[in-house]
Amino acid sequence: MRALRYPGFWLTLGLVAAGGLAAFITRSATLREDMFLLLMYVVLASSLNILLGYTGYVNFGHIVFFGLGGYVGFYFLSQQGWALWWAALAGGVASAVLALLLGLAVLRLRGAYFALATIGINEAVRAFVNNFGPFGGPTGMSLNFSAYGAYGGPASALWLTFGAMFGLTLLVLVVSFLVKFSRFGLGLMSIREDEDAAMVLGVRTPRTKTWAFVLSALFPGIAGVLFFFKNGNVEPVDAFRLQMSIEIIVMVMLGGQGTVLGPVVGAATYERLRGYLLTSPVFKNLHLALAGLLLLIIVLFVPAGLIGWLRGRFPRLRRVLE
Amino acid sequence: MTELLASLSDGLLLGFVYGLAAMGLSLIWGVMRVINLAHGATMALGMFGIYVIFSQLGLHPYLALVLVAILGVLFGFAVYWIAVHRVINAPYLSSLLATFSVNMMIIGVGTAVFTTTPRTVDFAVGRLQLGAVTLLGTRLVAALICILVTAGLYLFLYRTKPGKAIRAVANNRDAASLMGIPTARTLALCFGIGTMLAALAGGLIATFFPFTILSGTGYQTKGFVICVLGGLGNPTGALVGGLILGAMEGLIPVFLPVTWVPVIEYVLFVVILLVRPSGLLGAR
Asked: Alpha-carbon dihedral of residues B8, B9, B13, B15, nearest 10 degrees?
């Protein structure tokens, strides 16, 4: 619980809480929709950060956990009539189990081989779900409109999902902090710096890496269920978009990998930027190219990301920006 | 039986082109330790290169291919000096993201210019009848070109000075640089050749399938599968890997619904990575 003493902890949590509460206070539906997406990206980016930033393993298939968790949860929701909470939990657990099984095998691969394997896993799971009868194959599944009745009608169900996503975001950030300042997190960071040395010094690398992988898979699974419950349907194309995996990496890099505030700042900045580019008449057609240019500039000139750069430039900020 | 033969030969001919694309990927990985995530987008550029030259300038597609190859090398140089050179010694995440950003830019600009309506390069070179099996002329010529290019690449790598320099750099970059090999220029050349192979393969695919600017991505993932089959960093292995994948794509639909093909491909991909990361044909 040492994390509680850091001002950075309260700053990060306060920022996110302010955003979420703003939607609750104004009761504005547009703000709620914007914030929902934003919080979802924060969940995805922060959970990826546990593997990418702390452990130094590049996962190009992070979205597979979002998609698979969403699918499993949605299956229980729409076909078995489970309540949202249990379905969300089931989705998270399914993703975590997948990560546990994969982790034991895939995390033996290092560096670029691991990155390649994650692309393969994403494609394999997508192709499999496309053919899997109980999940509706290529057309996916949809939720009967009356299902929202149990949550007090569609409008109230939307607020409820938003609240759940808000809670999940805060949870991810707290976990992110606790991991960073724990013995476990120290093990992860030593793996990032030098895996062989970490092993020699007594870090049980296979086990530590696998738990990091499981932890980073749990949250996207829950977020997936919430997202697809709100959408009312789920399709393989939406659930396993490789593009989105990369966008999440961009968010983490933009904000600063390995920091807790970084993914939050990165997700917010990227989301606002993309919204601006998509709606501006000049850049509408070129938004992907501009996002690419932005990524290139970050990678070439500011590899530590926004928060990392600030921390390096102004050492005094290190106490506040974690 | 004839059905089996027909799908096998179809798949094998296609496999040559897959192999050519994967060869570029494999070369760049083997020499530079960079996974080029802009490979698929470059293939799409090759497709549109053929399309534009054929429909605007009226040049025969196979002549256009020469032009596309030259442009491909130049484009590869540009990408190397702008995006890759600075991160070549950085952790591999940097080069992955740098090449991916190039991919995003190509697709972004390409979508704005060409939209995403499917295009075709409309021409035919007849067909060859072998018993009950019919071989499409365009695919035969494509396979032939792939074999020629592979042979050319092999000669280049083993018989010419720049080619030997590339192999030396692949072997040990620091030692090569101590022996007076201009490493940066050699790496640029290697990236140029890899990019050229992608553009060529894209151009050849354009002669038999409809395509959009987004088509490259699928072929790129196939390229990874092939590289892993043939051994990452082993260009000739890539051609063999391409043939294996092509044969699989030809044969699996005979026994299973065609939608299962990617499931089997990617599961195989992950399994091989786990069991033998150096690839089925790669050195241990």
From this structure: 10
CA distances from A158 to A33, A148, A234 (A): 9, 9, 17
B91: phi > 0 → left, psi -120 to 50 → alpha, else beta; which?
A: beta
- The CA distance from A292 to B112, in Å, is 14
In our burial notation (b when 16+ CB lie closer than 10 A, e otherwise), range B34-65 reads: bbbbbbbbbbbbbbbbbbbbbeeeebebbebb
Tokens of residue A90, six digits: 């089931």
Contact criterion met (CB below 8 Å) for A90 and A222: no
pLDDT in tens, A110-137: 777 888 888 888 888 888 888 888 888 8
Q: Are B71 and B198 in contact (CB under 8 A)?
A: no
Which residues lie closer than 8 Å to B72 by C-beta, 6 or more apart?
B42, B46, B49, B192, B195, B196, B197, B198, B199, B200
CATH number of the domain where residue B88 is located: 1.10.3470
Comparing CB atoms, the residue among B102, B109, B263 nearest residue A127 is B263
Which residues of A fall below an 8 Å CB-CB distance to B?
Answer: 52, 56, 58, 105-106, 108-109, 111-113, 115-117, 119-121, 123-124, 127-128, 130-131, 138, 242, 246, 249-250, 253, 285-296, 299-300, 303
Give tens-digit pLDDT for B135-171.
788 888 899 999 999 999 999 999 999 999 998 998 8
Instruction: Please tell me the distance from the alpha carbon of residue B8 to that of residue B268, in angstroms, as a whole number.
Output: 19
pLDDT digits (tens, 9 = 90+) for B230-258: 877 777 788 888 998 999 888 888 888 88
CA distance A109 to chain B (A): 7
Q: How far apart are CA A17 and CA A169, in angstroms?
A: 9
Global pTM exceeds 0.80: yes
Q: Which residue, among A21, A46, A80, A282, has the nearest Cα to A169 in the 3D structure? A: A46
What's the structural domain count of chain A? 1
Nearest CA in chain A to B96: A112
Cα–Cα distance between A169 and B43 in angstroms, integer? 40
User: Does residue B196 fall inside a structural domain?
Assistant: yes
| ipTM greater than cut 0.90 | no
Q: Does residue B131 lie in a domain region?
A: no
Tell how strand B127-130 and strand B133-136 pair up. antiparallel
Measured distance CA(B18)–CA(B146) in Å, rounded: 9
Q: What is the pLDDT of residues A81-100, one digit of tens each?
A: 888 889 999 999 999 999 99
Tell me the H-state helices in chain B.
2-32, 39-52, 61-79, 92-114, 137-159, 161-171, 173-178, 183-206, 216-230, 235-255, 260-275
CB-closest option in A111, A120, A293 to B273? A120
> For chain B, what is the domain count?
1
Range of the domain at B220: 2-95+106-117+136-275
Assess contact for A42 and A169: CB atoms under 8 A: yes
Instruction: Tell me how close the Cα of B159 comes to any Cα of chain A, in angstroms.
Output: 31
Of A173, A167, A163, nearest in space to A46 by CA: A173
According to DSSP, residue B27 is labeled: H
